[in-house]
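Why run this: before we spend reagent on co-expression, it is cheaper to look at a predicted model of the complex and decide which construct boundaries make sense. The entries below are exactly what would go into the expression plan.
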Amino acid sequence: MYMLLLCWRYLRTRYIALASIVSVMLGVATMIVVNAVMAGFADKMRDRLHGILSDVVVEGTSFDGFPYANEVMALIRSVGGDRVEALAATVDTPGIMSFQYGSQTITKPVQIIGVDPASRAAVGQFAQYLVGERGEPRPPSFEVDPTLRELNSHAAKLIHESDPDAETLAILQQHAQQEVPDHGAIPGYATVTHHPPGATEDIFLAPTGSRIILTFPSTGQAIEPRRDSFTVVSFFKSGMSEYDASFVFVPLERLQYLRGMGNGHEGRVNAIQIKTRPGTDLDRLALDLSRALWDRWPRGFSVQTWEQKQGPLLSAVALEQSILNILLFFIIAVAGFGILAIFSMIVVEKTRDIGILRALGASTRGVRAIFLGYGLSLGLVGSGVGMIGGLLFVAHINAIEAALSRLLGRKVFDDTIYYFNEIPVLVDPKTVALIVGAALLIAVGASVWPAHRAARLHPVRALRYE
Amino acid sequence: MTPHLACVDLVKGYRKGKVQVPVLQGVDFEAARGEYVAVMGASGSGKSTLLHVLGLLDDPDRGRILLEGRPIDRLPDRRRDELRNRIFGFIFQSYHLLPELTALENVLTPLMIRYGVIAYKLRRKRLVHQARLLLDRVGLGHRCNHKPSELSGGEMQRAAIARALAGQPSILLADEPTGNLDAATGQAVLDLLRDLNREEGLTMIMVTHDAQVAAQADRVVRLTEGRIVECLTEVP
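The model came back. C-alpha cells follow.
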C-alpha cells in the first residue's frame, strides 16, 4: 500500500521526473503519427495498385502471347467456378509514343496495353480512372466522337460546313481520318501532360482529339517495328505515377491485328485479368489455376495475385516503415536513459527515506517496488499523453498541414506529387498498443537499475546519509 | 526471569577504507520487560550502532541478540523485516518523517507496510481511527493533514513517536530523541515517553549523551570504548 501512496506522491511532487518523460511522450506521439501516415499512404497505394491490377493475372510466358485465349478462359472459369466474376484478355508490349507539340516532336517510351474497355472495366477500377481534360469522368470507350473530329480536323470541319461533292468528300474524309485517326487511345495522364514548377494547372501536350503515333514490335522471330496513329479520347489518371507516366491503352483487337496476333479471343493475348468475388482466397485461387494450367500447358503461364505482382513495391513500403520505426524507437530508447539518470538522482535524494522505510519494516522487495512502480507510472503518463497527443495530431493532420503551409508560405504537402488531395492516415490499434507497450517497457526497464540500487542500500547507511 | 531484549558479547566494527574500526567490542546488555533503560556515552562511543544492531537494522560481527531468550540475529531477511515492523518502534534524533506524506500518513506507514493493498483497504477505517487516536495522544490531533515541513521540531518528534507506536510494538528504541529540541520541548517529549513506558508497559531503550535526560530512565548504562563499563540503577 505504501508503495502505491509513495509512487503517487513522488509522481505529483517531482517535476524533474516529469520532464524526463517528455521525451517518452514525444517519441510515442511521433511514432503514432508517422505510422498512421505511412500506413495511410501504403493503404491508399495498395488501393490504387489493386484498382489498376485485377485480383489475379494469368500471363503467358512468351512476349508473343499465347493462342487459344478462349480455351484458357474456359479453363479458368471451370477451375475458378463461382470464385471468378469476370475475365478480360489484354495484350501488352513496350513501345514508343510520339506526337507533335507546336513545332516540336515529342517521343516517349511507353507500355502499350490493348484492352477491350468494357470487359477491362469489369475486372478492375479501370473505368474510375478515366478522365477528360478538366478532370471530368469519361466512359471506358475508344470511340472517336464526330464532334471531336470536327473540332480537331480542318477537313472534317469543311465537310460539315460546305456540303462537298462525292469526290471532294472522299478526299476530305481521307484527310480528316489522317488528322484524327479512327482508333482511339487512352494515354496515361503524365505521358501527355507537363507540370511546370509552381503552376497550379497542368499543360496538356496532347489534349483530347490530338493524334499520337505508337511504334511497337511485331510478333514472330523476325521482329519488325509496327506503327499506327491513334486519337487521344481520354486520359488514364490512377494516382500511381508509375502507371500514369507509362501506360497507353489502345483497342485490343487493333493492337492484335497490328502485331499479327489474330483477332480477339480467337487470337493471341498476353494476359488474362481475373476479377474474383469478394472474400475469395486469392492465393488459393492462383495456386489452383497455376496447377490446372500447368497440367494442360506446362511452362506456358505464370499466375500471380495482384499482391504477388506488386510484391517488391509493397515490401519496399513495409521495409521503409520498419526502418523508420526502428530509428524513431531510438528516441524512446534515449528517453529511457534520461529516466535512468533522473531516477538515479531521485534514489540518492531519497536515500534517507529508504532507510526510514527499512527501519519501519519495509522489505527490499517493497523498496524496489516503489521505484519500479514509479517508473511504470511515469511511463504510463508519458506514453498516455503521447498517445493522446499523437492521435489528436493524426485526427487533425490536414488542418495542421494547412496552418503550417499558411505560416511558411508554401505547401508542406504537395498534392501534385501524390495526387492525394489530403494526407491519408490510417490508425492501426495494434500498432498503437505496441508503441505504448514498448514505451512502458523502456520506462520500467530504465528504472530497474536505480530501483535495484535503492533496494540494496544498507538501512543504517541510508539513515545516516546527509 | 528472561530479559525482554538482551545481547551477549556483541561485536561490531566498520570498515573505513582499508582500516577496520572497532565500535562494539563485546557488549553484554539486557532490558527487562517494561524497563526504561538509558544508554549513555560520548559521541562516537557506539551508542547508535548498539541501537541499530539491537533493532535488527544492522548485523553484528559476532555475538547474539535475544528476544525473550530466543536468538534473533541470524534470521532470514523477511523475518527481520517483520520483527522491525511488529516488535520494534524506532525514534530518531532528526525525526525522519517522510516529507511527501502528511502526519497521519506518516503514522500509518508501518501499518501500510504490514498489510498488503487489499488487506489495508479492508481495515483502513479502523487503522485511520487508531492513527488519529495516537496523534491525539501525542497532542497532534489538529495537525493530522499537515506535511512535516509545516510542523515544528517538537511536533515532528511527537508525530515520529506516534508513528513508532502505530504498529503496537513492545520495544521502543529511541536515538537521542531530544537532541534537536530545545529544553522545554525536549522535556515534553521525554514526559510523553515516560508516560508511554508506564502506561503501556513498553520496554524502552534510549540512547543519549545528556546526563539529565538519562537520569529520567529507570536504569542508566554507560558505553565507553565499545563496552558497557558502568551500570547505575536509580529507583524513581
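Chain B has a mean pLDDT of 88. The first strand of chain B starts at residue 5 and ends at 16. Bring this page to Monday's planning discussion.
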